[in-house]
Amino acid sequence: MPEVIHCYYDGKGSHDVFVLENLLAQEYENFDDTKDFDEDHMKSLLECLAQLHGTGLAYKVYLKSHVMLQTRVRSQLFAEKCGRIEKKVAG
């Protein structure tokens, strides 16, 4: 399985980036449709695509949970700060 060097997802689909290692340096070959494409090749291709797809989905879930956590923490900090300000004003 190729190594993922860099991945960026902005949720808009216009600036997403997915960088893999140099596959040619790792002796991967470009697809040649003049050669036989048998069942083993198809299984290997589908396994690789499934892993890449699953990695992308897991990354989206990670980002969403990370953003939700940040939002929750910011909301809590804001509420605490507002509470302190209200106490000073009332006090």
SS class: mainly alpha
Spatially, the strands of the biggest sheet line up as: 1-2
Q: How confident overall, as mean pLDDT?
A: 79
The percentage of residues in β strands lies in: 5-15%
Distance between the termini: 64 Å
Describe the global form: rod-shaped
Enumerate how many helices there are, as a single number.
Answer: 1
Number of separate strands: 2
Q: What layout of secondary structure does this protein have?
A:
Blueprint: E1 4-8, E2 17-20, H1 39-90
Antiparallel strand pairs: 1-2
Describe this structure in words.
With 91 residues, this protein is mainly alpha-helical. It has one domain (4-29, 38-90). 57% of the residues lie in helices and 10% in strands. The protein is built from one helix and two strands, in the order E-E-H. The protein has a two-stranded antiparallel sheet. Strand 1 and strand 2 form a beta hairpin. The protein is rod-shaped, with a radius of gyration of 23 Å. 0% of the residues are buried.
